[in-house]
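tool_call predict_complex ligand=NAP
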Amino acid sequence: MFDCMIIGGGPAGLTAALYAARGGLSTVVLERGMPGGQMGTTHLVENYPGFEEGVEGPDLAMRMMAQAEHFGAQVRYSDVTALRLEGKTKTATLLDESVVQARCAILALGASPRKLGIEGEERLRGAGVSYCATCDGAFFRDKNVAVIGGGDTAVGDALYLARFAAHVHIVHRRDAFRASHILVERMRENKKITVNTPYVPVDIQGTEVVTGVTLRQAQGEETQLLACDGIFIAVGNDPQTALVKEQVALDARGYIITDAAMQTSLEGVFAAGDACQTSLRQIVTAAADGAKAAASAVEWLMVR
Ligand code: NAP
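tool_result ok
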């Protein structure tokens, strides 16, 4: 039995672990993959304070984990298949059917890449369709790739891929980009990147591997084929809250509702990071949420 169980090992979960462990709680982080969550698949993080030249996402993830472990937090690698959050003891069931129990829980469940839902996307996943430029970009050295989306992830991915791909096409459904001004400027200045707006992808072409993507003008019916070897889809994220949807209050889009101290609708259950209803989803805000959630957990356990 732990004092505190943290589900998710992204910046929110790892920072919560650091604060919980330093707050004297026996703490376990349950993480199904590599630590870091989406941060772990970000090539360069330029807006996390303290790194004037930026830091690679996986590097920052390993540092956050090492810091939490240094203060006594344990990290256990497994998929959590079920969570029982009501009552005095919070229980997580792991893939091998073993259980982890704790007196309180911090949900740092993160978010996962949104799908376009078009023909070819699922069929050619891993055969040219990818949701992670950092993971798969190297397969496309000297090849032509398309990136779909207009946010920080899409523009950051386009810049990253332009380092080794022959050419990068970014496809966005509006002329204005949601991504930070500095990234958009860099993208527009990069001769290896062609900006295709306003277009929406209609289907992904290819039998064995991706050969292109059909684009339709956002306001019209006209379509054209954009030939490419790889397609990186970066059209936002959805909260990974399926495990807890019957147990804590969620908003209409599935994000966890918390108060300012990161307390959810259920006693002894706190939440942090991208899975929460919030106005900004960045590494720094996820880390701040994690700190607040753990501080609340420490305080909550003190009077029990
Ligand atoms: P995002 O900001 O939600 O952007 C998603 C993009 O995909 C938008 O441009 C959106 O178009 C487009 N889109 C959504 N659904 C689409 C569809 N069905 N078809 C075509 N296009 C579609 O997602 P994100 O870029 O992954 O970023 C998520 C969060 O992480 C943001 O808060 C972002 O700032 C943060 N982030 C930060 C950094 C960094 O600062 N280093 C890096 C990566 C991510 P519209 O613009 O028309 O809605």
